[in-house]
């Protein structure tokens, strides 16, 4: 159902509320379809993904026309809700500028789903109240409405009055002052009613054009959805328009093939999708034209196989010398030679990989091409690094336990050590990997003002805010940091001073320090530390945070990022050396 371009009625209000509440379900279904298409190779779901993507875009476009002042909180004063329109606007920008129907959009699943979930939760606590001006304009352009008929009647009356004045005054011959007054009154009456008519005419034409564009867009998209898919056609693919069309082709069963391996006394086969989802493989022929670009390469770079087949390998691969044929010709897979290369990625910095080159053989054993495969040297280094990290963490935990058992510290020190032992659980490799993925996909850039506003917006108690003078203009944080601060303030239950500062022990490691000081004496603060630990520590540790108590001050520390690093350390070092 398409809503009226001028939103003002009860039906429009219901449409907006239902659209916001159902947005989370639509977003989850959209990303589920993307996973089916690009991770499980179910290309028959592509039309459904395009249809749902277009539906979400259309809904967000309509929601973008709602004035921000229309969202009101359910309180006695019906104050304007500022969070909901900001979240909807951010979601609209993501779906129009970033999220597409492609594998590169899968990394946005969690942030976009969380935005839709927050919008739905906000919508349950607000009501829609359109401005009076929108209601009047809607009635002014609606045929047979009282406002429309009254406007026409006023305009006709003004026109008749002007004509009568022009005809009657010369015959009566009144004094100049009376004639001028009557003439000015008639002119003002005519110009005012005429301006209203012209304004309503312009608004009606704009609304009609908007409605026509929506209907045309729906019709054109429906035609595209029901056309036969050309994704598997070699002739329709623009990437195959090369001088070697007969040899460089993408087979119809590329994604449904099998890999052969020796198994006992016979040959075993592995379903291709299990390997292609995790191992980057790029095939090329003797002319260094790409003949295979598997699913893992698509997910890592954002470029689809249909757009890469037939392209020169040098367009997407960066080798140390820049001469792709020369660098790859020196590789010998039998000797285990590894080459560090970079793959160009869509809208991000190039991805660094360690690869080997292996020949592709036909059934008679003749070489028909070559393939680049991600080498496992880097993976082994990651395994060893994980083991060393876990070992160091375990040794630190054992040493701290011995300090407590031998009563080497006082009661206050034991509390600090217990907090540190609890925090060390975040340093295990599994937790580190999960937090790194969250840092990649969920962390958000914010300011001190936005952070405090999100943490304190639900409190009726007035809290004092203090921001360090050296606090950066923006910083990147886990989105649950405001929730952790508000949970702690809610557990304290009294007015507090909240101080923000950013600490830096080393050059590239930053921490957000939040100091909460209750506005009461320590003996007046009825705070059960065990209950506080049980209530807040799981949330804090889930975002790699730490908490310690110093007198009546409670200190929270969270990891944060002040500057985004787009290059790895080796490349940054080289760039610095070149500038010297």
From TrEMBL:
Residues 277-373 form the PAS fold domain. Keywords: Membrane, Transmembrane, Transmembrane helix. GO terms for biological process: regulation of DNA-templated transcription. Pfam families: PAS (PF00989). The chain crosses the membrane at residues 146-172, 178-205. It comes from the Eukaryota. InterPro entries: PAS-like_dom_sf, PAS_fold. This is PAS fold domain-containing protein. It comes from Trypanosoma cruzi. The lineage of its organism: Eukaryota, Discoba, Euglenozoa, Kinetoplastea, Metakinetoplastina.
């Amino acid at each position: 159902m398409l809503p009226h371009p001028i939103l003002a009625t009860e039906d429009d209000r219901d449409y907006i509320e239902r659209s916001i509440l159902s947005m989370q379900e639509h977003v989850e279904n959209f990303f589920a379809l993307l996973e089916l298409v690009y991770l499980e190779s179910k290309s028959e779901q592509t039309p459904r993904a395009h249809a749902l993507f277009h539906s979400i875009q259309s809904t967000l476009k309509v929601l973008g026309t709602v004035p921000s002042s229309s969202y009101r909180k359910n309180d006695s004063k019906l104050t304007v809700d500022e969070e909901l329109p900001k979240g909807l606007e951010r979601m609209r920008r993501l779906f129009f500028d970033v999220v597409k129907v492609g594998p590169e959009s899968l990394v946005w699943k969690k942030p976009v789903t969380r935005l839709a979930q927050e919008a739905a939760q906000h919508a349950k606590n607000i009501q829609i109240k359109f401005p009076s001006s929108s209601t009047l304009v809607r009635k002014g352009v609606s045929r047979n409405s009282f406002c429309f008929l009254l406007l026409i009647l006023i305009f006709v009356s003004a026109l008749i009055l002007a004509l009568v004045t022009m005809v009657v005054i010369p015959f009566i011959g009144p004094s100049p002052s009376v004639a001028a007054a009557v003439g000015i009154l008639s002119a003002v009456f005519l110009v005012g009613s005429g301006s209203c008519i012209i304004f309503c005419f312009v608004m009606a034409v704009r609304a009609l054009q908007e409605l026509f564009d929506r209907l045309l867009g729906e019709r054109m998209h429906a035609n595209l959805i029901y056309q036969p898919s050309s994704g598997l056609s070699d002739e329709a693919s623009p990437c195959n328009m090369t001088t070697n069309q007969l040899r460089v082709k993408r087979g119809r069963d590329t994604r449904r093939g099998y890999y052969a391996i020796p198994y006992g006394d016979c040959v075993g086969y592995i379903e291709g999708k299990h390997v292609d989802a995790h191992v980057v493989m790029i095939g090329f022929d003797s002319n260094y034209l790409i003949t295979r670009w598997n699913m893992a390469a698509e997910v890592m770079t954002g470029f689809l196989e249909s757009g890469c087949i037939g392209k020169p390998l040098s367009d997407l691969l960066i080798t140390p010398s820049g001469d792709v044929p020369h660098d790859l010709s020196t590789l010998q897979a039998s000797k285990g030679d590894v080459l560090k290369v970079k793959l160009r990625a869509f809208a991000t910095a190039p991805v660094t990989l360690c690869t080997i080159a292996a020949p592709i053989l036909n059934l008679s054993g003749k070489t028909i091409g070559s393939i680049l495969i991600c080498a496992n040297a880097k993976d082994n280094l990651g395994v060893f690094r994980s083991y060393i990290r876990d070992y160091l963490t375990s040794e630190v935990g054992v040493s701290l336990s011995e300090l407590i058992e031998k009563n080497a510290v006082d009661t206050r020190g034991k509390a600090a050590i217990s907090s540190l032992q609890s925090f060390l659980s975040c340093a295990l490799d599994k937790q580190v990997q999960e937090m790194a993925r969250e840092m990649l996909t969920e962390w958000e850039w914010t300011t001190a003002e936005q952070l405090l506003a999100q943490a304190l917006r639900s409190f009726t108690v007035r809290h004092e805010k203090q921001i360090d003078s050296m606090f950066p203009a923006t910083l990147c944080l886990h989105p649950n940091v405001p929730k952790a601060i508000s949970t702690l303030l809610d557990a304290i239950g009294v007015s507090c001073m909240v101080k923000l500062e950013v600490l830096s022990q080393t050059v590239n490691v930053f921490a957000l320090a939040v100091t909460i000081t209750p506005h009461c004496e320590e003996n007046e603060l009825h705070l059960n530390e065990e209950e506080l630990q049980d209530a807040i520590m799981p949330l804090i540790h889930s975002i790699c945070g730490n908490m310690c108590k110093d007198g009546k001050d409670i200190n929270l520390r969270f990891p944060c990022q002040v500057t985004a690093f787009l290059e790895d350390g080796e490349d940054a070092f080289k760039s610095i050396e070149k500038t010297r």
